[in-house]
Write a structure and sequence with these properties.
Largest sheet: 4 strands, antiparallel
Shape: globular
Helix content: 40-55%
Strand order of the largest sheet: 1-8-3-6
Radius of gyration: 28 Å
Number of helices: 25
Low-confidence stretches: 134-158, 587-597
Number of strands: 21
Mean pLDDT: 85
Distance between the termini: 61 Å
Structural class: alpha+beta
Length: about 625
């Protein structure tokens, strides 16, 4: 008997609000609505159990929540709510599956027989794609829809987020350091290039030779074309790993003032990407802001630049820009702002004879700044013992002025005084080593807190070599201390993703009733796990996403799993950015945050259905990441 038209229309309307049905044709939705039956399951019912054999029906939750117990992986339980389907994988594979589905409350589900499920897969490409994709693919597709809802072209954004290895169109053209100028020029003419990379015996880029070098260092100086190219090349070319995105490459070019970058894999050259290549992929540019920064003559002018950065950030968030390139862009622009502030301040201080380096720590060090962030910085310097006190006094004078200047530009002073103007964080190289070594030898809770902040340091100004030497020393020391690593891992496992057993999310009580903290119970889990991976595996990168990618590569974890974790982290960052922009309901239901304020708490049930699905998956990925960390380094 055919279902009444009113019921069919009501069912179609419900399905259309949920993935994957929101992408399906009207006729396919009507097919489901006409054949599905509404089934009732009282609390405690086992709706699907692998013990019963092959799955026979597709269920779409219409009302209530269903607990999913993964019988193959301990602790991998989750809760599904209205609009979600099960058991898709078991039906697609024609098997019993490994997950048991139980009603946590009275539940109503649309039940579609297996035969109709198979027919729908044949008739509807979107539904077939949904069934074939891994969960990570579903999340990435949903993120694409999220960006579409903000009005940005999906194809354009997806291109910006492609790893550079997917953008390179040809094998690298290069010569070694022993090649003659003539041989390099002949290669450039044959390949129709305006520049050529120069590599060492291990194919690591050590220089670049351009037409500018040809004119200024060869032609005008009358250099013999038979001399080695190494004598006239530009040393230390900009390099970036192939796993980085196009947006990251643009940010690095803008920061360094380069027009092209060497793309590497494990340090070896695999390609070259130019500014022209990348600008062809997108329309957003930071050049006008960077130019205004360089031309600023006082703090007042820099304040206007800050307003421009906020406007650009608003536009990128509104367009649906992804979290990773967005936070990298914010960090790069803030770095340029800080550099210009230093240039304005330095003439007033006598630091020319001091070997020093300004360090960004915390989120600044990881290149993960959001719209609103307070200052986290320090100073590393090197000098003989007898000059230490004098050097520190002069550096502290400069640092305090810099901290105050940054505060005037809208970067609040750190309440915990994690700032270069604090004598505790303006230390000579041996003092930093003694402090770091003490934390590693005796990993008390206070020591682990210090490590979590300062071990993510990144050089921002001054002698970068000082920071690189400290990083190499820290890498070797930490990797060899098993007690410290076990304690670091235990610390990273303390925070639990707020996944509920009855409802989707576990929210807080008391003062923050009905909300959860995206930072302390979300992004912190990813950041702490990535830091532990980095220190345990000898990874010197400080950015969380890159740490996870490199750790996955070294541990032999499938790219699909690593990408799932990275996507989960990015989504949490994106929610924080949207909350800080004032788009989400936060502490009080129905109340949005004032734009550009530090907001990490949200009401998860005020999110739309798609965002709730993604948030739940991001927390699930966080829990899985903790499991991987414990297996790899927790023993």
């Amino acid at each position: 008997m055919a279902a009444p038209a009113l019921i069919v229309e009501s069912t179609v309307r419900f399905l259309r609000a949920h993935v994957p049905f929101s992408r399906m044709a009207r006729k396919d939705l009507e097919f489901v609505a006409e054949r599905a039956q509404l089934a009732y399951f009282p609390v405690g019912s086992r709706i699907v159990d692998p013990a019963d054999g092959m799955a026979h029906n597709l269920y779409v939750i219409q009302r209530g929540h269903v607990r999913v117990h993964n019988m193959a992986v301990a602790g991998d339980d989750e809760v599904r709510g209205p609009g979600e389907c099960f058991p898709v994988a078991a039906l697609s594979a024609g098997s019993a599956g490994t997950r048991r589905f139980e009603a946590t409350e009275d539940v109503f589900c649309y039940k579609l027989p297996r035969e109709d499920f198979d027919t729908l897969r044949q008739a509807s490409p979107p539904f077939a794609e949904f069934c074939a994709q891994a969960l990570a693919g579903i999340v990435q597709h949903s993120l694409g829809h999220l960006r579409q809802n903000f009005g940005q072209r999906v194809v354009e954004q997806r291109t910006l987020l492609e790893p550079l290895r997917n953008i390179l169109r040809r094998d690298p053209v290069y010569c070694d350091t022993g090649s003659t100028i003539r041989a390099a020029l002949e290669t450039m003419r044959r390949e129709r290039l305006s520049s050529i990379a120069v590599v060492d015996a291990s194919q690591r880029p050590v220089g670049i030779f351009t037409q500018t070098d040809l004119l200024s260092r060869v032609v005008l100086d009358g250099v013999d074309l038979a001399v080695p190219i190494a004598s006239v090349m530009t040393h230390n070319p900009g390099a970036i790993d192939e796993m980085c995105t196009a947006q990251e490459a643009l940010a690095q070019m803008a920061q360094l003032g380069f027009h092209q970058l060497m793309v590497t894999r494990e340090g070896r050259l695999v390609g070259v990407v130019s500014e022209r290549d990348l600008f062809a992929l997108q329309r957003v540019t930071m050049r006008n802001i960077l130019q205004s920064t360089r031309l600023a003559r006082d703090v007042g002018a820099l304040k206007r630049v800050v307003a421009d950065i906020e406007s650009l950030t608003d536009n990128l968030v509104a367009q649906g820009a992804a979290a990773e390139p967005l936070t990298h862009t914010i960090t790069s622009l803030n770095d340029a702002l800080t550099h210009r502030l230093f240039e304005l301040l330095l003439p007033e201080y006598e630091l020319d004879e001091i070997d020093w380096c300004w360090l960004s720590v915390g989120s600044e060090g990881r290149r993960e700044q959001t719209v609103v962030t307070d200052q986290d910085n320090a100073i590393l310097f090197h000098c003989p013992d007898f000059e230490r006190d004098r050097a520190r006094r002069e550096l502290l004078d400069f640092a305090r002025a810099a901290n105050e200047g940054l505060a005037e530009l809208g970067f609040p002073l750190c309440p915990g005084k994690i700032m270069a103007g604090n004598p505790e964080h303006c230390l000579e190289a041996t003092e930093w080593r003694e402090r770091f070594a003490g934390w590693i030898r005796e990993p008390t809770p206070e020591a682990l807190l210090g490590a979590n902040i300062f071990f993510d340091f990144r050089p921002l100004a001054g002698n970068v070599g000082l920071a690189e030497n400290l990083r190499a020393w820290l890498r070797d020391l930490a990797a060899g201390n098993r007690l410290f690593l076990r304690m670091l891992v235990a610390n990273a496992l303390q925070a639990e993703p707020p996944l509920g057993r009855i409802r989707k999310f576990r929210t807080d009580d008391g003062e923050h009733a009905g909300t959860l903290d995206l930072k302390s119970h979300g992004t912190r889990i990813y950041v702490d796990a990535a830091r532990a991976f980095a220190l345990g595996l000898g990874i010197t990168e400080t950015n969380t996403s890159q740490r996870l990618r490199l750790a996955g590569r070294r541990l032999g974890i499938e790219d699909r799993e690593t990408n799932s974790a990275v996507e989960g982290y990015h989504f949490l960052q994106l929610l924080r950015l949207r909350a800080q922009r004032g788009e989400l309901e936060t502490e009080v239901r129905g109340a949005a945050a004032k734009p550009h304020t530090a907001v990490n708490r949200i009401d998860p049930y005020a999110l739309n259905d798609l965002d709730q699905r993604l948030l739940k998956e991001a927390f699930r990925q966080a829990r899985q990441l903790q499991t991987q960390l414990e297996r790899a380094l927790g023993q």
